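Notebook B, p. 112. Complex prediction, attempt 2.
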Amino acid sequence: MKRAAALAAAVLLLFATVGTPAASGYLADTTVPSAGGCPVLDRWNISVSQPLNRRWSTSLPLAPVTILTVAAENTSAQLTEIENTISAAFSAWMGVTGTTFNSATYPSVIGPLSRVNTANACSNDAGTNIDGLNTICFNQSSMGFTTGVLAFTRVITANAPDASVGSGPPAVFAGQILDADTLFRNDGQSTFATPGALATTQGQGAYDLESLLAHELGHWFGLDHSAVWRAMMFPYAPPPGQYLGTRPSGSSPDAPLSDDDRAGIRMLYPDPNDALDVGAIRGRVVPANPFALATTPQPYTGGSVTGIYGAHVVAVDASSGSVVAGSFAGRSCNSTGTTAMPQFDGSYDIERLPVGHEYWIYAEPLVGLAQPGDFSGALGNICSTASGSSCKTPAIDTNFDPRAMPAGP
Amino acid sequence: MEKRVRRQCIRAVAKLAVIMSVSAAAASATTIERMSLVELAQAAPVIVRARCSGNAVARDAGEIWTLSSFDVEETWRGEAPRRIEVRLLGGSLGEVTSHVSGVPRFRAGEDVVLFLEPTKRGDYSVVSWEQGTFRVRGHASGAEAFVTQDTASFATFNPATRQFRAVGIRNMPLEDFRARVKAALQGAAGRQP
C-alpha cells in the first residue's frame, strides 16, 4: 500500500512541456469584450500618468466602533494610524520588483493617498457608486452585504474601448480597470484592528486590518484568489486576533506577499526592463489514455475536447520546495478579429517565473467535484465568446488517470 | 490488484488535491467569516433546494446586480414562494463589468441548495455568498446526488508538510446533507463540517 501511495503521488507529478502559449493565466479576473473575442485580463492602463488614483474615507463607524486603533478615537493621530496601515498595504504591492507598479522604479504610477470625509464615497445607494475614484471606505451599509461578509472590493472594467465612468477618462482597451472601491461593513458584526491595536486585549477579537487591506488591494490590481497556501490572495485571512505572515519593513515592503502574489502582479504589469522574472512554463494536462476524451460531447460545432478541462497546476521551486505560482489548466482561446474559438485542450500557462531555477509542476485534476466556472469568473465566460450560440463548456471527466510526462522542448 | 490499488490512490490523492487547489478561487475569505453549517443554518431564515431558471443583470442603488431566478423544489427552512429571485453583486451591463470576488454565479438548469436571507427589495441574497451556496450534482454512476459547498475546497497543499487540509461540505450525499441541516436547525448538530 505504501508503495502504491508513492506511485500515486508520482503520477501526479507532471513535468512541463513548453509549447504554444495558452490564453490561460494566473487567477486573475477577465472581461469578455463586448465586440467579441477572447476574454482579456483586467488591468490598469499604465500608459497614462498616475493611472491609479487612491483615496480613503475618514468617516468611521462610532456606534459601534469597528476600526480599532491604538490612538484615541476622533483624533488626528487615529487617522494617521489608519492611513499608515493603508499605506503599508499598498506598499506591499508597490514593493514588488519587476513590475511597473514598483514605487522605486516607477514612482509616479500610483497617485498620492488622499482623504475624503464623506461617508458615502464608495456607496451612496442612490446615485451611482461607480465614479472612477478609487476609494477605501470603512463606514458602509451597502445592500450587498449579507451575514458573514466583512468587506468586499468592487472592480469596474471596460467592456470596450471608450467606455468611461464618472469623471475618469475613456478606456483605451477592453478589460481596463476604471474604478475600484473597497467597502468594510459598519454594523458591528466584526471589528478590524491596526497592527498596533491587534496586539492589545481589545484587538484579540478583531481581524487584522493590514491583512484584509492588502488582500483587497490585490483585487484592485486585477488579481483573483489564489490557491497557494499563505499567499496574500489566498481566500482565508488569519483568525481574529492573529497575524501569521511577515510584517512589511522599509527594506522589505513586500514581505507580507508570497511568491505567488509577486508572480501574479508581475504577469499583469511586467517591467520591460526586468531580466530576472521572465521565465514561463506552459503545457497541457492530458489524459494518459488518448482515447479517454473521445466520447466527450463537442463543446460547439466543429470543436472538440482534447485535454483535461479543470486542473490546478502549481509550480514548486525544486531547491527550496516553496510554491512559486499556481494557475488553472483547461482551455486556451484563439481569436481572429471578433471571433473567438475556445479550445478545451487542458492548456496552462505560468508566467513571470525567476529564471535559473528548476521547478516541479504539480497538476491536480478536479475529478468531478466541481466545475472551474464555479470558482472563477475568469473560467466561466469562455463559451460566451465562441462564434455561434451553441458553445457549452464540457463537464469534468472523471474517467482518467493522470500520469507523469517527460519534459519536452 | 496493484493496478486497482494504484488507481484508488490516484483518485484519493487527486480528490485531496482538489480540496487544496480549486476553491481558492471560489470564496473571498478575507472578506467572509468562516461559518460552520450550524452557524449558516441559524443565520439563514430561508433554506431551499432550487433549480436556476435564468439570470438577468440590472442596475439598482448605484450598483450592478446579477438577479438569478430559481424554481424552488424543496423548502428546508422558513417559507418561500415557488419562484424566487436572488440578488448578488456584480455583472456585465452596458459598457462596463462589475467584478466582486467571492460572489457565486449560477447557470440555468443548475440544482443548488441555498441558505438565504431577504433583502430590503423583497428578494433574497445568499448568506455569506459562496459559503452559503451548495451545488447538487449527480454521482458519476447516476445513482445518487451529492452536495459540494462552493467554499469546500478551501484547504490547500502545504509543501513543507506534504499534507492537505479541507474544511466544509464536499461531495456529501444529498440525504446526509439534508440530515445535517435538519440537525443543525434543531440545535442538535453533531460534528462541525
